[in-house]
Amino acid sequence: MTIHFANVDKRFGQVEALQDVSLTVSDGEFVSLIGPSGCGKTTMLRIAAGLETPSGGAVTVNGDTPKNACRQHQIGVAFQRPALLASRTALRNVSMTLEITGREGALSPGELLTDFGLGGFHDHYPHQLSGGMQQRVNIAAALVHNPPILLLDEPFGALDELTRESMGEWLGAVLNRSSKTVIFVTHSVEEATILSDRIVVLSARPGRISEIIEVDMPRPRSRENRTDDDFLHEVARVRSSLYRAVEMSE
Ligand SMILES: Nc1ncnc2c1ncn2[C@@H]1O[C@H](COP(=O)(O)OP(=O)(O)O)[C@@H](O)[C@H]1O
Ligand SMILES: [Mg+2]
What we know:
- The protein is of the alpha/beta class.
- 36% of the residues lie in helices and 23% in strands.
- 40% of the residues are buried.
- It binds adenosine-5'-diphosphate and magnesium ion.
- Adenosine-5'-diphosphate binds next to strand 2 and helix 1.
């Protein structure tokens, strides 16, 4: 599954959110988007999910429209704010995705929640869970039908640093078991570096691609990698690029 952005512009009235964004995310590739607040990262994901249409240019998913890819349940999406039903338990929020999409090739909702550190919380309702736990249920619900494409918008943003690292490791392991094409939005340079094949650095609004950095380390990467010189070197490279992207727009 490939996702192709071709010269994408997006305007909201007077606001120019994205300008001439061209990017191809290849089958099985993990690409992170990083850039200052308001530079259009969420907008790029929403366009790839078929929730917004570009003002100029086009996005295709395996040659088809994002809307069609979504209809065929090929895309799993988790946005910043968990989209959980208050009247359903954690387990039933996750299995709801299967009720909508069918169960073919699906993962087990219970096992998925347990893998996410929520083994004792299957029967809890959203209001009984912390924000970080709700977000984990949200991601499990995006993954359970095993879609070939995952779009994740700052999914670990509300978690404390160590939980966040564990979630990243777990996501890396899931992707190692069943390869997926992923676009991942994050504020964290370290998180982008540990997870990605490539990191797309966007300038401040209007979001343009400032630089694309290839992370030159085999995936999946483990906790041990975080203290490697190679890793720290890559992190520094990404951070400098982000500084350049912000300067470019000032
Ligand atoms: N539906 C919308 N209507 C008007 N403006 C919007 C809408 N969605 C996003 N924007 C604007 O587009 C810009 C990019 O937003 P967004 O994609 O959310 O940025 P990011 O996720 O990088 O923080 C922001 O200035 C935001 O206010
Ligand atoms: Mg955003």
